[in-house]
Amino acid sequence: MPGPGSNKAPLFNGETSELIEFFELFEDLASSCTLTDEQKCKAIIWYTDTLTKRFWVTLLGYKSKDYTIFKQNILAKYPRANQGIHYMIWDLERVVLSMAESDISMEMELLQYYQQFRPIAVWLEANLKISTREHD
Fold first, then answer.
1. How far apart are CA 74 and CA 26, in angstroms?
2. Residue 2 has what DSSP assignment?
């Protein structure tokens, strides 16, 4: 397993919306390293901040080194974690307004705008927050 802080290490930054992705990355890495449940319980807390680590080690499953129970208890403490990233119309407006204030004069700037705009617009459309017409 890569050391904490390594560019190859997963990192949980405390954002509930990113917890599922963190688990996916950690579990893929743990699987490739053939970690046992006990090793997973020990290793996963390396990739969190101190406050999160102190919280997670108090949860059921950590001391018994039962990774499945430990993961279930972590997820239970983060309501809506299974929903992943979610956006509001304001997020899309913010992207549009920030780019409206600056001149897009290079292709790279347009690409950066599109990379910010598209994920939000697609999510809002898929979750029926905006229409296809508004998306385009």
1. 14
2. P
In terms of Cα–Cα distance, which of 81, 74, 16 is closest to 45? 74
Q: Rounded distance, CA 52 to CA 39, Å?
A: 18
Backbone angles phi, psi at 71, to 5 degrees: -60, -45
Provide the pLDDT for residue 65. Answer: 96
Rounded Cα–Cα distance for residues 2 and 25 (Å): 12
Distance from chain centroid for Cα 16: 7
Q: What is the pTM of this model?
A: 0.64
Match 């950690």 to its residue by tokens.
26
Confidence of residue 134 (pLDDT cuts 50, 70, 90): low
